[in-house]
Every structure is written in C-alpha cells, then in structure tokens.
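All the exercises in this workshop are built on plain-text protein records. Sequence and backbone structure share a record, each on its own labelled line. The structure tokens are whole numbers drawn from a learned vocabulary of backbone shapes. The record below serves as our worked example for the rest of this section.
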Amino acid sequence: MEFWNYTLNVEVLIRVSVLVFVGIPLLGLIRKWVRTFVSEKYSPHYAMLFSKIVFYVGFIMVVVLVLHEFGFSLGPLLGAAGILGIGISFASQTSLSNIISGFFLIGEKPFQVGDIVKVNDIVGVVMSIDTLSVKIRVFDNHLVRIPNETMLKSPVTNFTRFPIRRASIKVSVAYKEDLDRVRKVLTDIVDDNPYALQEPAAAIHFDSFNNSSVDLNLRVWSQKDDFISMLTSINLEIKKRFDAFGIEIPFPHVTVYTGDVTKPFPIAMQEERIADTDKLPPKKD
C-alpha cells in the first residue's frame, strides 16, 4: 500500500511554507476575531468554545493540506485513523463522558467564565470551560481543574449569577442591652454604608437566646461586585459603634448571680495565714 509518491522540489517547499508560516498565524487572528465577535452577542464561555473549535478545525485542515503537498495518500491514512479512533474511544470512556458532560454544562449554563462558584469545598472564579474540564482559580491564587463529569454530578453554588447578593450577619449582644436601641444603631449603620442597597431594604430579625447573649440576624443587600466591601465595612462599623455607645458584645463566660439582683456576686481573695509550727501547742497523747 502506497502512502506517498512525490518528488521534493522548490515549489512544494514554498507551498508548505506558506501553509505553515502564514496559515497558522492567520488561524490565530481568526480565533481572536471569532472570540471577540461571539463575546459581544453571547456569554464569554461560548466565545471561548467557538474560537477553539474554529482554531482546531483550521489546524487540522492545514495539517491535511501539508500532508497532501508531500504526496500522502489520505484515503488509507484516514481509514487507519478511524480504526485507531474507535480503539481510543473504547479506552477513554472517562474522557468521552467529560466531553458529553461539557456539552450539557454549556447548554444548561449554570455558570459562565468570571463567575464565583462553590463546588464541594472549592470556592473560586471560573477561568475557563473546556472540552474535558472546568478550571477554577481559588482565592489563594491556585488553579483547580475539575472534570466536567464531576461538575455535572456535584452541587454547584453560583454566588454571582444574579446582580445583587444578601449578607446575613450574626450580631450578639448582652442580655442587659435594650434591643430597640441595638436595632436603631444597626439601622443607622446600614443607612450610612455606601455599599448597602436601600432596596431591597435591610432587615433585622431575632435569632436565638444563647447561653451568654441575645443573637440577632442583620440581613443586608449589595451589588455583587461590592459584596466583600459591604460585609467588611459593616462588621467594622458595628464594633466601632457598639464600643462608642457602650453596647456589650459578650463572649462565653460563667457569672454567679445572687438570685434576683443582676450584679455579680462580689468575691475577694484573702491571704492565708500560716501559723508558726513552733508556737503550736504540743500534741496530747
């Protein structure tokens, strides 16, 4: 079986050089154009997917044309490649499952490039949605690769799917505090915060009677891009204003009370006097 029959000459070398040194850079430019064009009309992961498809199809065409210029008989070569592909497909069922799962993820669109997601215990920013896996950059700047099949089977939390987010802040105060006064201070903190949204309005709910505190739940909304700034600034301001107004933030401790009074039982330590053993009366038999 003859796979090639050619005579190497200058004309062949010129055509191959044009295909390689012009065709491949041209494919790179087309890939960038497709990515820009698709991203203007659809989500970024669609743009990434289509640009990769265009590049790989074009690259295969360049390889086929180069082989044709060198005189390869492509019929037997493609037949052998088909048989090899069938064998590889049986040997790589996991990869095939990841590819199929990738199409389901693209069709369902539970997240897109740039979203902050949580998969099992992994929280980070989606960097790319590829044929076999999703790549996530966690917040300590590590890259985590998760197979598409795992993404499809696991619960995925998308923190940035919607334009606004709500923070639930647990606020604990001592039992002696006036809760109406505490609610007024918390409301003022939210009203003065530049990142907190006025609509939907913030809410303050009773949470529980704890061992050492009364627990309230402050729920505040913000734009998704301002969430961390809002959460940090409100917590810092709560500590600052509670200190300024003398509102106690309790910590776990045990206090002994005398019953119907609220002040702690006064306890004083006294020095123990040790008698001189020489002055002790003699023991009697």
Summary: Helices lie at 10-41, 44-69, 74-91, 93-108, 148-153, 179-192, 227-245. The two ends are 124 Å apart (CA to CA). The longest strand covers residues 164-173. The beta strands are 116-119, 122-129, 133-138, 143-147, 156-158, 164-173, 203-209, 214-223.
